[in-house]
Amino acid sequence: MTTLTGAHIVLESLLAEGTSVMFGYPGGTVIPFFDAFSDYKTLHHVLVRHEQGAAFAADGYARASGKVGVCLATSGPGATNLVTGIADAYMDSIPMVAITGQVRGDMIGSDAFQEVDILGITLPITKHNYFVEDARDIPQVMKEAFYIAKNGRPGPVHIDIPTNVFKQQVDSFNYSEKINLPGFKIPAGTDDKTVTEVVNLIKNSQKPVIICGHGAIISRAEKELRELAVRSHIPVVHTILGKGAFPESHELSYGMLGMHGMAYANFAVHNADLVIGIGTRFDDRITGSLDTFAKNAKIIHIDIDPAEIGKNVKPYLPVVGNIKDVLKQILEVLPEKKHHDWVGEIEGWTRTYPLSTKDTHRITVPKMLTELHKITEGKSIIVTDVGQHQMWTAQYYPQDESNKFLTSGGLGSMGFGLPAAIGARFARPNEEIWLINGDGGIQMNIQELMTIVQEGLEIKIAIMNNGFLGMVRQWQELFYDKNYEGTPITSPDFSLIAQAYGLNHLRCEKPSDIASTIKAARDMKGTVICEFLVEPEDNVFPMVAPGKGLKDTLIGK
Amino acid sequence: MRSTILLLSEDKPGVLNRVTSLLRRKRFNIVGITAGPTLEPNMSRFAITIDDTEERTAKIIKQIDRLIEVVEVVEIARDKSIMSEMLLAKFRSKEGMLDKLPRCKELYKANDEIIVGFIGTPDEVDLFIEKSKPLGLIEISRSGITTLPL
Ligand SMILES: Cc1ncc(C[n+]2csc(CCOP(=O)(O)OP(=O)(O)O)c2C)c(N)n1
User: Fold this and answer.
1) Most buried among A44, A69, A306, A474, using CB within 10 Å?
2) How far off is chain B from A446, nearest CA to CA, in Å?
3) Is residue A343 domain-shared with residue A461, that is, in the same domain?
4) Out of B10, B59, B69, whose CB is closest to A311?
5) In this predicted model, what pLDDT tens digit does every residue of A266-318 receive, in sequence order?
């Protein structure tokens, strides 16, 4: 290493944080960063094909590893291309550090070539953002950025660095040991009085239900959650991001709730006398109409973010704290209890209102997923895009472990799947990964296939080809008199796409070939594009129509 | 309900922008905002006056508290605080008019114009303006409310 520059300091800081891979794309303002990169052999840079792919890949990496995902782009268009991925991470509380180059400090404000006020743009979609004025500030900024991204409720942090700061010479690298954030509060456990209240509410409840969200996974409270549910015999339903926190094969698991949740999960919440929300935002997609949501229930809301409590649903008992710590406190004093009548009632609903699918001679997404679940024994890491296939995957691929279901929940960003799967592959090099995608979603970031090839990655890509932007078509069918405007979508010949990229391709056209296609894909080395020609006009049920409450869950057709 | 939120934050560039951007995002209308340094070095105090429901006000306080630089944020109760506002008022000067406007200070005087300063509670400032109108008031500038708890 000849001279130390700001770029070196950024890289040294990344190493100090334990970063081993980052996703990015070069451009004028970050050339000095790439120039210094050659000195750092242990850090791997993955060149994506569009900066949105870099942000989604960092997001997927973070989801699959629990570590901070890192992405980088140049100023102007490079930076604005990151925005959707940063917003996605913000909505789903994903730890991420996004670094952008900026035009020279003395040119900022002059509408210089490729200058954009990216800090202004990311302000409302980041947990925090930084502008670096002087290279000597980099260690402190990097330290704080990683700290903020992963502590408390995680989220993305953006750092904007002018190109002259990357080039600025510095004497030495000293990574900051101390952080100085007097305003950054991280709640731990709660007080004894609250714990007693929780326990009393559980004791006095006849019909309790737990809604488990992403927060339970983030705080790694799976064990405590399980103990709580089992000891007090409480049925558990989950949000889409809470999937896997509580084993779905467990007898007390009643699946996902919400707009496309299991009818029995929705009915359980609707009829409960106690709802324990654990690390959930009570998002509109799970509550349906707030006027009728859990009207007969007292609600306990446990979350690390005080601003989430009372935001959508007014709890009877607010509990601010780290979920793992709070659950541990509760378990110290929680007695055993049984709710046989209540669990029996929900069991009844599972028999009356099971998941149902369209009766057709064609392949349906649920049929494919049922086979995939059987063949992979429910153990594969699953990445989805956004749409009907996403909801069906949440329904038909039950999982017993957390951090194995990677999906864009809060933002619902199409184009998430392929780059997120790339990120997941770097986080989990040796596990099976299936990407379930729509014909629309795969085309939104299809350029990332070449990233897969350049990096030599193995991902099993299943494209559910229905010739429509299916989820939107479903709404048009149900609420707009089947006026299919803007939703029929054609696709390229995926076998030729695969050939052009040098990937394997399989096409499956009838239900009897599903199993053999999946098996063939698993037997092939490397990435396979597996195309399933599925029923074009199938609908995801159950469904809570917009504006309706959970009690009005539609069971089918 | 009109309420004033007092917050203490690290004195860093962009904090005011973060706070106002948040208020815009959550669709609050800012009635007034004042900011300035405190006795502690590197700390600033902001007093933000909004006019909204009690429930939404409680929610926005929690949102403001999430901002990394914000160290402390509280809603100020009117009866447990001093709330003051400064008014600058320009008049076409008339003989003896200052006698009719108590508790204000003459800050500038030219041949036919006079600028006075007045400090009081927002209600007192309102009253002062009403009284001034018939006395040749031309222009005003209000500082917005600033406050300190008792
Ligand atoms: C970036 C983005 N644009 C638009 C939408 C709206 N949208 C939600 S689902 C959907 C259809 C997705 O179609 P496809 O990928 O084919 O999946 P399918 O629903 O058919 O399974 C669309 C357009 C979105 N969620 N994200």
Assistant:
1) A69
2) 33
3) no
4) B59
5) 999 999 999 999 999 999 999 999 999 999 999 999 999 999 999 999 999 99
CB-based burial label for B68 (10 Å; 0-12, 13-18, 19+) = buried
Angle at CA of residue A418, ends A521 and A366, nearest 5°: 60
Specify which residues A384 forms β-bridges with.
Answer: A436
* Predicted-complex ipTM score: 0.91
- How far is C-alpha B125 from the chain's CA centre? 11
Q: How far is CA B146 from the centre of its chain?
A: 5
Q: Residue A452: name the closest of A103, A46, A87, A177 by CA.
A: A46
CB distance A414 to ligand 1 below 6 Å: yes
Sheet of strand A298-303: strand arrangement:
A253-256, A236-238, A208-212, A274-278, A298-303, A317-320
Domain B2-76 part of CATH 3.40.630.40: no
Residue A199 backbone dihedrals phi, psi, to 5 degrees: -65, -40
Q: Which domain holds residue A297?
A: 192-352
B11 interfacial to chain A (CB closer than 8 Å): no
| Cα A134 to Cα A165: distance, rounded to the nearest angstrom | 6
Instruction: Calculate how far, in angstroms, residue A525's C-alpha sits from the geometric centre of ligand 1.
Output: 30
Report the gap between the CA of A309 and the closest CA in chain B (Å). 9
Q: Is residue A244 part of a domain?
A: yes
pTM for the predicted model, two decimal places:
0.96
